[in-house]
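Inverse folding, one chain.
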């Protein structure tokens, strides 16, 4: 049986959690929210290791 089914659109879970470095606010977004709406701090992606 040929392997003809490609699962190429695995976009069911493309969002990440971002945490504000200043106030700790957590937001879920597809891309970095930029500035925290609460304090204007920077977000970092919680799914990635922070250096
Ligand atoms: Zn904040």
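Residues assigned per position:
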């Amino acid at each position: 049986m040929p392997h003809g089914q490609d699962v190429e659109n695995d976009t069911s879970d493309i969002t990440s959690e971002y945490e504000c470095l200043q106030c700790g606010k957590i937001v879920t977004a597809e891309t970095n929210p930029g500035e925290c709406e609460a304090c204007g701090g920077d977000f970092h992606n919680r799914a990635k290791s922070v250096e």
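The longest strand covers residues 16-20. Strands lie at 16-20, 26-29, 43-45.
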